[in-house]
Design brief:
By secondary structure, this protein is an alpha/beta fold. It is built from 13 helices and 9 strands. It has helices at 13-22, 34-46, 60-71, 85-88, 93-98, 114-122, 151-163, 175-182, 186-189, 221-230, 239-249, 253-274, 295-302; strands spanning 53-57, 76-81, 101-105, 133-140, 168-172, 197-201, 211-215, 286-287, 332-333.
């Protein structure tokens, strides 16, 4: 059992096979490869967005920073959750690339609410030329606390932002997991809910290292291309990024991997709760359990077996992947990997053993 982030897992065999195939022969560089054209077609089909434009980068931080810089002026404020990844885990990259200021919005379990966002919007940009102006809204799904926004919840937030004329960004490092949890379509979770630009995650869900910036407003595409090049994120041998994303999005692989990760996450939740651990809401595969000091040693001495055997989720769309949150005791994310040690056990933790818990977030 590995208690750590899903960043520690390997890449899916289908993705590795695609990379090896891309290594054969020669191909055009800097995104002009044939596979990239197919990725664009896949994104447009999957998101029901025939005008959408997608550009690939290697990391989620690059995707977020470039997406924000393309949509927010340097005198603008980016409204995000107080524990958003862009606020706590990207070394000020969004501010560096955009010049904008992050305005942190509170909310329980990693979620901004219409009330807290409304308050932040009403108190920002009211001092004329002397103060920061309203710039854009950035949400995360799956959230940093392991919870998931529904499309309706996203609509309620983007509507407030749109009323102020603001574009809206979605950090989808674990986007596939949020779809599996909610049963929503990619379109329902994004542009139909008021999202203008999506950071489409692949690395945490079975890719070797690729993220997409999906623009639902193609007028911003050229600016993003320029920012990607100027920021040093345009790959020469781009086909190796394209190959990963093409394999990831083909034949529903991304959703199958997320369903596996979510199912293992929910299995872990149940096993921990059976052992009196406190597990805050965990909608996907990221959780932050807490238990009293000494509880682990006592369970080892008692050798207490689990009280409930695992039963697969009854829903057609099993749960998905997630990530770190507002600093509970320990963090674990179940990976997509079929050979995950959790998956091979009939019962969870007999006894509970947690010597290697990861106490910090990773992306």
């Amino acid at each position: 059992m590995r208690f750590a982030s899903d960043n520690t897992s390997g890449a899916a065999p289908e993705v590795m096979a695609a990379i090896l195939k891309a290594n054969e022969g020669y191909e055009r560089s800097y995104g002009a490869d044939a596979a990239m054209a197919r990725v664009t077609d896949l994104v447009r089909e999957i998101f029901e967005a025939p005008q959408a434009v997608v550009h690939l980068v290697a990391t989620g931080t690059a995707a977020n920073a470039l997406a924000i810089a393309t949509h927010c002026p340097p005198w603008g404020a980016v409204f995000c959750h107080q524990h958003a990844h862009i606020a706590e885990d990207e070394c000020n990259a969004p501010e560096f690339y955009s010049g904008a200021k992050l305005v942190l919005v509170p909310g329980a379990h990693g979620k901004i609410t219409p009330e807290t966002l409304g308050q932040a919007l009403s108190t920002t940009g009211e001092s004329g030329v002397h103060g920061v102006q309203r710039g854009m809204l950035s949400l995360t799904n799956v959230t940093e606390a392991g919870t998931v926004y529904t499309p309706a919840e996203i609509v309620a937030l983007t509507a407030l932002a749109k009323a102020k004329g603001l574009p809206c960004h979605l950090d989808g490092a674990r986007f596939a997991n949020s779809l599996v949890t909610t049963g929503a379509t990619p379109a329902q979770m994004t542009w139909k809910a008021g999202i203008d630009v999506l950071s489409l995650g692949g690395t945490k869900n079975g890719c070797l290292g690729v993220e997409g910036v999906v623009l639902f407003n193609p007028e911003k595409a050229w600016e993003l291309e320029l920012r990607r090049k100027r920021g040093g994120h345009l790959f020469s041998k781009h086909r190796f990024l394209s190959a990963q994303m093409e394999a990831y999005l083909t034949d529903g692989l991304w959703l199958r991997l997320a369903a596996q990760a979510n199912a293992m996450g929910q299995r872990l939740v149940q096993g921990l709760r059976d052992r009196q651990a406190h597990v805050p809401p965990a909608d996907a595969n990221m959780l932050f359990p807490e238990w009293p000091i000494g509880h682990h040693d006592r369970r080892l001495k008692l050798r207490v077996p689990p009280t409930t055997a695992f039963r697969p989720p009854k829903a057609a769309n099993a749960p998905g992947s997630s990530r770190r949150g507002p600093r509970p005791r320990s963090m674990s994310t179940a990976s997509w990997t079929p050979s995950d040690p959790i998956a091979s056990q009939r019962r969870i933790f007999a006894p509970l053993a947690v010597p290697g818990v990861c106490n910090r977030k990773t992306r």
